[in-house]
Amino acid sequence: MTPPAKSCSDKVKGALIQHWTVPDKKRPAEQDAAEKYLLTVCIFGKYMTLPWIKFKRWYLLVTSFLVQFCIGAISSWSVLNNPIDVLIYGKKDKGMAVNAFYISVGMLGTTTAIMGPWLERNGPRAGMVLGTTSFLIGCVISCISLHAKSIVGLYIGYGLFCGFGNGICYTSPVSALQKWFPDYRGAAAGFAVSGFGVGSVVWAKAYLPIIAWTSVPDLFIVTGCVMGVILYSCAVCLRNPPSSFHVGGLNIHGEVVYETQEESFQRGENVSIRSSLRYESATNLAAQEEEDPSTNDSKAQVKKLTLIQSMTSPDFICMCIMFFGNQLYGLIVLSKLSTMSTTLFGKTAAQGADIVSINGLFSFVGRLVFPLISDVIVRVFNVEHAFARKCLFLYGVISQIVIIAIIPTLIRNDSYTVFAVLVFLLTLSYGGGLGTIPCFLTDMFGAFNIGTLHGLILWAWSLGGVVGGLVFNAKYTAAIKNGATPEDAYIDSIYKILIVVCVTGSFVFMVRTNPRDRFEKGYHHSLFGKRVISIKPKDTTVNQNGSMQNEV
């Protein structure tokens, strides 16, 4: 008897489940042998290797920095708003060019969310090649569109194609580094995204001279070629570790394994660091459920959650909302900072570019230092890894709320210097959130889920850029048309953003980092070591018909 044909909805559901499931893919021995060397590429399933330089994981830090350096150009977009508006519309402050930034950020986040499972299945090298190719296509479309004075073409080229390419290129090295550096997850996350801040500094200073040398449209060809060479070169270095990889007494999941000094030397490292605090993940979930939930936190067992379990967990949902609040105002300021400097404080275009560059430096410091501080907190105070990351986010939310509340007063009083200092401090927290979130996710949900979950949470980041940015822009434009001054229009929107940041930022308290709370049956939540929420699970019983039913 033939099985009944699947309905269309069943096929769609099955395809979605298959896409969001990352199988434990075994690598061929040929790949492991080839990737022992730095210069190796795979062409139609065959590995071409130059056995000149042995691969070391430390090369990935430089590679990731360069990738993020190129993508960091997106944070310098505010320098291009006025030149593009003047080129297309004949006057600056038209407010149309900035929408390309919002679309690009939205596409970046959407891409990382959707392509995360694909990236885990195909590896960071394939992701880099696909992302770089899309980025270059976007640069060509943007150049042609600006020559034709088409803002829609710019939205398609830079917004969609460059946004797609940036999204894949952004998350490819981050996912790989979290697997290669289980002993330095915070530091690896910081290095992985710190180049983004440096890129925003350099490109903000480079855009105007390049425009003066060529033209606004040709800027995209020049920068596209430079970035394309760098990104394609970095793709050669990027790779995932073999399944047997372990370092510093830890495997890629952060589980304790035994490593001899001889193995450390074979890997080309003279120092093997073992963390004083680590998670012990049991492979047998049934055995985990039988464990006494009162196990000491520093040795509490952490379940290996599937990707779908991780995506639907209340902790991940709260992290997305929390991250949205942490990034919202920073994204809006990044896209409008140069314009705010010239419009609200009467500064020149060059001075506007200067503040964008300095702001990018603070973004770099935040991305690098915040994850490092969380690693220090773990080792010095002997606390849970995830709890240390949570403390940094708590600081970021509180500091941003205070700064956002003060900024309207500074605008009214024309206090440019204090405004700039507070924006720099706010950007420090903004960058710190982006730098800390990869290791936070890895500590919470495991190394195999980091690519997809990081992509999904970047979608929350992009949502802040698209929704927050477009709404901010629309409200500002409407207020100006109704006769409001630029100062009043900005201040009114800033107060509305403050309310959103307060509400979404409060979700940081709902992220459970205590393994006892997370993995004990039911729902439990503790604050300061005491349980404040404890909901017992439903008991599952079998009725007389043999079907399952739940009883409270």
Write a brief caption for the model.
InterPro entries: MFS, MFS_trans_sf, Proton-linked_MCT. With 552 residues, the chain is mainly α. 67% of the residues lie in helices and 7% in strands.
Largest sheet: 2 strands, antiparallel
Instruction: Note the run of SSEs as H and E.
Output: HHEEHHHHHHHEEHHHHHHHHHHEEEE
* Major β-sheet strand ordering: 1-2
CATH topology: Growth Hormone, Chain: A
Shape: globular
- CATH class equals Mainly Alpha
The strand count comes to: 8
Q: State the fourth-level CATH superfamily.
A: MFS general substrate transporter like domains
- Secondary structure category: mainly alpha
Q: Please, what is the average pLDDT? A: 81
Low-confidence parts lasting 5 or more residues at pLDDT below 50?
A: 264-301, 540-552
Strand composition percent? 5-15%
What is the second-level CATH architecture?
Up-down Bundle
- Give me the Rg, rounded: 24 Å
GO molecular function: transmembrane transporter activity
Protein name: Major facilitator superfamily (MFS) profile domain-containing protein
Transmembrane segments: 58-80, 100-119, 126-148, 154-177, 189-213, 219-238, 316-335, 355-380, 392-411, 417-441, 453-474, 494-511
InterPro entries: MFS, MFS_trans_sf, Proton-linked_MCT
